[in-house]
Amino acid sequence: MLKKVLIQMCSILITDPNSPVPLFDFPVVHVPELVQWRPRLSGQNARQVLIVFQHAGEAVALTTFLEKVLAAAKLDIQKDTFILTVRPEETPSFIQLKQQIDFQCFITFGIEPLRMGLAVAAPLYRPFVLDNVQLLFADDLQKIQAEREQGGKQMSGELWRALKTLFL
Fold first, then answer.
1. Are 53 and 62 in contact (CB under 8 A)?
2. Which single residue of 3, 67, 86, 138 could bond 90 by disulfide (Cβ 3.0 to 4.6 Å)?
3. b/e for 139-153, b at 16 or more Cβ within 10 A?
4. Alpha-carbon distance 46 to 26, whole Å?
5. In what order do the strands lie in the sheet with 49-54?
6. Total-model pTM
7. CA pair distance 109, 111, nearest whole angstrom
8. What is the pLDDT of residues 81-98, one digit of tens each?
């Protein structure tokens, strides 16, 4: 009986964000079931750069926009990178990606670290190193593209500065 009560109490502490007594002093992240990401990659990855972005519909326009952005940083989207597009409801795990794919630089658009199983504070457009990989988190690629089409340059300017830091 005591064992059941303890299990229930621990379950409440772990799963209830309003619990008055947190069990951990860090966020607990959900690790999704194993997904084989490698078959969904495009590109040759010559420079070991993995780029992940989400899209709700057709990804061709976003890929074309991304190709232009990367070209300015001297990256060929087909030769130098692996591109992985995910749907908004998918949760790509950084650990799973690292286990399945060789990369030294990881750039993601519109996907928060916690959604990828990373309990790190990662400001947008500020590259950092984790597990010998350079990581860069940026705004959603669709938002950056929409801003550029309207003549804005705030997000694209920050992205450009980050890409210069990483590749130029």
1. yes
2. 86
3. bbbbebbebeeeeee
4. 36
5. 81-86, 49-54, 105-109, 133-138, 128-130
6. 0.82
7. 6
8. 999 999 998 989 999 999
